[in-house]
Design brief:
77% of the residues lie in helices and 0% in strands. With 142 residues, the chain is mostly helical. The chain is elongated and about 50 Å long.
């Protein structure tokens, strides 16, 4: 699998997490998808209100969850947002310098999820074909 050419997904981490979780991987990834979307919305809303305190927790959650599934670019972006928001909290300032990062957050989540879905679809099609071939499809059974 290796690294994705565009650096959005670390396929090694994705594969390790899939192997670790096993049969429930697609279901758990669905929970991630829902939670990540909520975190992005929360970060965006907090940013619109210039509320650094409210940005920290969802950015932190998005960072950790994304990195666990191999969403490396999204995890690193969320980490940058989290650290910037924490710095603003410490300095009692508004998170005004994050415009570009906040604008990249939602499209990067969409791209990350699309790559995850393509990988799952590819693997489920392959997995569905293997048992049929192994059972002797098209051959006379004794």
């Amino acid at each position: 699998m290796g690294q994705a050419g565009n650096g959005v997904v670390n396929w090694t981490t994705f594969g390790q997490t899939r192997d670790l979780i096993g049969n429930d991987f697609a279901k758990i990834l669905g929970y991630y998808r829902d939670d990540a979307a909520k975190c992005v919305v929360a970060v965006e809303q907090a940013y619109k209100l210039r509320d650094a305190v409210s940005m920290v927790r969802p950015a932190h959650t998005l960072k950790g969850d994304s990195l666990q599934f191999g969403g490396e670019a999204l995890g690193k972006l969320a980490e940058h947002i989290e650290h910037s928001a924490r710095r603003c909290v410490e300095e009692h300032s508004a998170p005004d310098a994050l415009d570009a990062e906040i604008l990249r957050l939602r499209p990067l989540l969409i791209e990350t999820l699309a790559q995850f879905e393509r990988e799952l679809t590819k693997n489920s099609v392959t997995a569905m074909r293997r048992p049929a071939a192994a059972a002797g499809f098209g051959r006379k059974q004794a």
